[in-house]
Design brief:
mainly alpha, two-stranded antiparallel ribbon, 274 residues, single chain
């Protein structure tokens, strides 16, 4: 093993670990605000599926580090972040649909991996490794491109608040490291998805420069109508604007109001006058 290969093996290991930890700033804010706001869980679910496929590929390639080790670490961190999101999301139906898609991928890869390793598919070990590598290309490209799933929202709102900046930045750094490492070890299954990932992540970073994320979100709550007094044919409305500086629009379903004395004097009726 050459010095360059060793150096980039260490760099790819570090960058992969950072990618697995990169969702933390966004999901930490979700936990503190107790609401998901603009944060989406799709990148974490896709990262989980990608880590699972890479764990198989690393096992078949006898690559404990960086492939297998960082992939197993990623599975653990993704489950942790998913747990935070699931705890505070109001749209669990959409989350369930994403989970079903990821579980289908995991199940199919598991079945093929077990059958391939045991020789049931009739393939050689090299053939199974090649097939698993081809699958990893698809999941890796999906992982790099998943933050772009909200690009329509970004273009509409002129804000990248729905895109995980830390994850995008770490993915860019990670793709560069893996491109160089793949060239050194001559592995096209590692080179192709990371080259595509470099394009995707560059696009995401460009979007951040064009549409910076807004850190202050305004949420307009429904107006509260006050019943008019019998003598006056007027209505008063109260609009509440909630401004938060943590980048998350938090909705409170339980609004508390306190009764106050009306400043409008109620005159006695004619029957009660002396």
């Amino acid at each position: 093993m050459s010095g360059a290969e060793t150096a980039f093996m260490v760099l790819t290991t570090i960058s992969s670990v950072l990618v697995r930890l990169s969702p933390w700033p966004d999901f930490n804010r979700v936990h503190k605000a107790q609401a998901t706001g603009d944060v989406v869980v799709l990148p974490v679910i896709v990262l989980f599926a990608n880590c699972y496929v890479l764990a198989w590929y690393g096992y078949l390639c006898d690559s404990i580090f960086p492939l297998l080790g960082t992939s197993v670490f990623g599975l653990v961190t993704c489950l942790f972040f998913f747990g935070i999101y699931y705890r505070w999301t109001d749209d669990r139906y959409s989350v369930h649909k994403l989970c079903v898609g990821a579980l289908v991928v995991v199940l199919l890869v598991t079945i093929y991996g077990v059958l391939g390793v045991t020789g049931t598919t009739g393939q050689t070990e090299s053939g199974v490794r090649t097939t698993m590598g081809a699958i990893s290309i698809g999941t890796a490209i999906g992982n790099y491109g998943s933050p772009l799933a909200t690009i329509r929202k970004v273009m509409t709102t002129k804000s990248t608040a729905s895109m995980p900046f830390t994850m995008c930045l770490m993915n860019f750094f990670n793709s560069v490291c893996w491109i160089v490492y793949a060239i050194i070890i001559s592995d096209m299954f590692v080179l192709i998805p990371n080259a595509v990932g470099g394009v995707f992540t560059s696009t995401q970073l460009i979007l951040y420069t064009i549409y910076p994320s807004n850190t202050s979100t305004k949420l307009e709550l429904p107006s509260v109508m006050i019943d008019p007094l019998p003598r006056f044919d007027r209505q008063a409305s109260l609009s509440v604007i909630l401004v938060q500086d943590d980048g998350l629009a938090r909705k409170d379903s339980a609004l508390n109001f306190v009764a106050i004395q009306s400043p409008i004097a109620r005159y006695p009726s004619a029957s009660t006058r002396v």
